[in-house]
Amino acid sequence: MSENVKIILEARNETGKEVCGRLRRQGCLPVVVYGPGMKEPLLAKTDAKAAEAYLVGDFKSCQYDVTLPCGTVKTCSIKSAAKNHGTDQLLHIDFYCAE
């Protein structure tokens, strides 16, 4: 059995189109983490180049060990990943934590 991919997230407090665009220009990728064990969705960011590296093949069926900004590690899957179809740039990832 293969090992889960490890992803480290950093906190972000702002939302919106302009904020997410600024994050992408800085080399970060906007991320949302949600699931039944979470009171509300967690807004975060991760390194865009690292994200591109693990989003290959059938990435939606993989499990990821996501380190949240508070230091907690949760096993998640990718619910959705948005890409710009013109440039193939990754725009956003939604992680779903079933725990």
Automatic annotation (TrEMBL):
One of its GO terms (biological process) is translation. One of its GO terms (cellular component) is ribonucleoprotein complex. Keywords: Ribonucleoprotein, Ribosomal protein. One of its GO terms (molecular function) is structural constituent of ribosome. InterPro entries: Rbsml_bL25/Gln-tRNA_synth_N (IPR020056), Ribosomal_bL25/Gln-tRNA_synth (IPR011035), Ribosomal_L25_dom (IPR029751). Residues 10-95 form the Large ribosomal subunit protein bL25 L25 domain. This is Ribosomal protein L25 (General stress protein Ctc). It comes from Jonquetella anthropi DSM 22815.
